[in-house]
Amino acid sequence: MAPQAPEQTAKEELVNADEVPHHHDMEVREIHISPRKIISDLRNLDWSKVVWKNVILFILLHLYSVYGAYLALFAAQWKTIGFSAVLYFMAALGITMGAHRLWSHRSYKATFPLRLVLGIFQTMAFQNSIWEWARDHRVHHKYSETDADPHNARRGFFFSHMGWLMYRKHPEVITKGRGLDLSDLEQDSVVAFQRKYYLPLVLTLCFVIPTLIPCLWWDEYFTNSLMVAGFLRYTIVLHITWFVNSLAHWVGSKPYDKSIYPAQNPVVAYLALGEGWHNYHHVFPWDYRTAELGGLSNYNITSLAIDFCSKLGLAYDLRTVKKDLIQQRVTRTGDGTYASSTTKIE
């Protein structure tokens, strides 16, 4: 990474290692997730604040994705399905390794070639620009589960999953977002270039190229290519990312801090390349592993990728947390499930 993150951006400002911000001093309610609960959350919304354009776009996207799933099962070539899986992995790494661990938390540093590749991968994911993604995520950590949190889990499972993208932002989200120091992002050439040319870049990398490659290289039908490698793959990556905000804030153990919503969720960790160990991550957000265990243990594919890049000299200054600090926090605020939650998965 070219510029070093200034003081009080994603490092010290977000969450102190041994202190939970005052807004986390709360009693976490008992969790109930059911179709009835989701319907109840929807009924309690202020419908005047719904962004109907986004609602329509998401409905269309999911209709296309359902059709894409049908084509993947009964019409598309296996090469197209395999290609879509590769695209999923690349786009997911763009979010987990790039937008999240690098640009949001500065948990490690990256050379220009690695930042360029991660910038391309993140653009393929089509989840807003790196600048917007990192800004929203920093606000989320600093004001988690308050009105300033963009996807506040207190507002319901559906809202924290995808509803927040179809609803006008709470004024506090906007105010607190504007108050963050984002100069490190503004000084990053990859972030700045992507933000300036985001629309043509995202259309090209998320849809045009993924659609053309199967058509030109192995004579796939255009419709199969667009619906499977384009819309279906894109929608799957979206939901996997959203599960970190929803499912990993609602379901799981809390061995590091039982007073907060984020939890250890192995299902999300498996699907999101290691991002599901969320209780640890919210307590120690600067750890590049986002978990106490990295690599293949606990499905932490993203940390394995960072380790690999580190061996190649592309990633450096990987930040971790001392074992004694972890133990102190577990003893003081954990829910007693620490031993089982940190057992390596064979």
UniProtKB/TrEMBL annotation:
This is Fatty acid desaturase domain-containing protein. InterPro entries: Acyl-CoA_DS, FA_desaturase_dom. Keywords: Fatty acid biosynthesis, Fatty acid metabolism, Iron, Lipid biosynthesis, Lipid metabolism, Membrane, Oxidoreductase, Transmembrane, Transmembrane helix. It holds the Pfam family FA_desaturase. GO terms for cellular component: endoplasmic reticulum membrane. The keyword Iron applies. The keyword Transmembrane helix applies. It is a multi-pass membrane protein. The chain crosses the membrane at residues 55-75, 81-99, 197-219, 231-251. GO terms for biological process: unsaturated fatty acid biosynthetic process. One of its GO terms (molecular function) is iron ion binding. Belongs to the fatty acid desaturase type 1 family. Its cofactor is Fe(2+). Residues 78-285 form the Fatty acid desaturase domain. It comes from the Eukaryota. The histidine box domains are involved in binding the catalytic metal ions. It is found in: Membrane.
